[in-house]
Amino acid sequence: MTTLRSEHFIYLLSSLMVTTLVACNESGQVRYSPDFENRMKLQEKNVCSSYPIGFSRIPSAATEALQTPLERRTTVFLRQFVTDRGLVRYSALTSSSDDLQELADLVKGFSSQLSPSVPFESQQKAIWINLYNLATLQLITSNYSRLLGDESSRFPEIKSIQNIQGLGSDIWNVKDIATSRGNLSLNEIEAEIRKAKDPRFHFAINCASLGCPPLLDTAYVGLALDSQLNERTCAYVNSGEFSIFDDLDPDAPVVFTSQIFKWYESDFGNLFDFLNEYLSDRTRLVAGHLNLKRSDGENVWAFEFEDYSWELNEEFTQ
Q1: Distance between CA 27 and CA 38 in Å, rounded?
Q2: pTM for this structure?
Q3: Contact call for residues 314 and 212 (beta carbons, < 8 A)
Q4: What is the distance of C-alpha 186 from the center of its chain?
Q5: Phi first, then psi: what are they for 211, rounded to 5°?
Q6: Each residue of 190-219: pLDDT tens digit?
Q7: Half-sphere exposure of 274 (CA within 13 A, CB side)
Q8: Could you say which DSSP state residue 212 is in?
């Protein structure tokens, strides 16, 4: 079984090869040999087998060695304001005009690098994902003092992105993100990412709410994207917080999981197969009494989708 330590070693070896496989063009965007991404994917097969329940970063030293300058700046920024649990220190961020300007510059940097084509290629997918997350942070910080609802708000008792301007879920349709492809909304950015037909991205983008997959405190990196998406998917499926496999009735197992799988059902295909693909060995032991393989196409699991928390993903400090 591959261990986290050996995975780290593999990534460090990969990073030493970057000088011969990777170069940057004049705009700072990465170009690399055609087979490099395939090599990265091959070493990530069965990646969830060694991941424990809970969230953890992939080896950061190797990932950072593959970052573009813009991705590196983003990592420095995120690690200043995002905790290892994916919560955000919004109060600290909004109190610094320099940091708010840096956030604006990062959004502008990624928005200027969007390709006019569908983002199938890893570097473009990473750009779109980083843009979504940073633009969401910018939306929250621009409206931070008005996030707590009132009588007319959808969530009057909590801070929520859906309390902004009284728009509720329409906040994701506001076209105020200036890009090389014109002004876009968060929903439009998400729609572009979905065209890549990779459902793992749902665990990489963050909607500034506790119900969302936790925000990674590192930029998404084109040359390590497949590994990062695998890690976030493994972490989410096996967290015990968003998908619950233990203490289930073996005769009629009901898996409690996120509304994400219901809202985006078409992206995941057969949910039984998707979840089964990303179960870690540890989760398989916890859920060992469940039938993890279907026979004759019969789905032996039932799913119950839990209520989604739209409360702001904020880290409160004393």
Answers
A1: 24
A2: 0.81
A3: no
A4: 14
A5: -75, -15
A6: 999 999 999 999 999 999 999 999 999 999
A7: 21
A8: S
